[in-house]
């Protein structure tokens, strides 16, 4: 039997169910992600949870970097199946400001810290202008990534970056994050 974790809204937290329902229950939970492009290339991130509640953030320092960083989070969390990192925590009910580990929710879960390291490495790889090997990635990670996983993240991230670059200021890139 699995137990649905605390989701920040007090809903389902005490419900248990058999393994046959686990994957279909998680597949029902989604969150809409919108990133509105600003004239300076920055993005305003807005996440609408399944219950209709919203959290958002507008970056001012290094703002253009954060839209790409958030898209990299989406690629890493989606491809590698993480559910308790940046977007998963927001879907659970965390506010964007809480995902720093200094907010009302306290310290971040270990999974979120692991994902932040992975995203940071993909950001560093992008800044270097070269593709790193799995060995270069894995030298700094607690869990090894396979070449195929790294390539899938790169492919999705490249597609997301392409979509982001194609939209004009004032337009919105929309994504769905499924738990």
Structure annotation, total helices? 6
Mean pLDDT: 85
Spell out the helices and strands N to C: EEHEEEHHHHHE
Q: List the strand order in the largest sheet.
A: 5-4-3-6
Strand percentage lies at 15-25%
Distance between the termini: 19 Å
What is the strand tally?
A: 6
For the biggest sheet, the summary is: 4 strands, antiparallel
What would you report as the Rg, rounded to the nearest angstrom? 17 Å
Secondary structure layout:
Blueprint: E1 2-3, E2 16-17, H1 19-28, E3 30-37, E4 43-48, E5 54-58, H2 63-80, H3 86-92, H4 110-128, H5 134-138, H6 147-166, E6 172-178
Antiparallel strand pairs: 1-2, 3-4, 3-6, 4-5
What structural keywords apply?
two-stranded antiparallel ribbon, 6 helices, four-stranded antiparallel sheet, disordered N terminus, alpha+beta, 179 residues, 6 strands
């Amino acid at each position: 039997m699995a137990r649905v974790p605390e989701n920040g809204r007090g809903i389902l937290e005490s419900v248990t169910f058999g393994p046959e329902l686990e994957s279909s229950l998680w597949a029902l939970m989604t969150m809409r992600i919108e990133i509105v492009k600003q004239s300076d290339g920055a993005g305003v991130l807005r996440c609408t949870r399944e219950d209709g509640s919203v959290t958002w953030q507008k970056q001012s320092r290094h703002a253009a970097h954060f839209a790409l960083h958030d898209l990299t989070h989406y690629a890493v969390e989606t491809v590698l199946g993480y559910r308790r990192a940046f977007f998963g925590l927001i879907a659970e009910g965390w506010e964007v400001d809480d995902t720093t580990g200094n907010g009302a929710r306290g310290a971040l879960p270990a999974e979120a810290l692991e994902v932040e390291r992975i995203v940071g490495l993909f950001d560093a790889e992008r800044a270097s202008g070269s593709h790193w090997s799995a060995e270069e990635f894995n030298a700094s990670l607690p869990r090894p990534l396979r070449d195929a996983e790294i390539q899938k993240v790169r492919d999705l991230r490249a597609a997301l970056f392409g979509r982001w670059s194609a939209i004009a200021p004032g337009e919105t890139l929309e994504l769905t994050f499924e738990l």
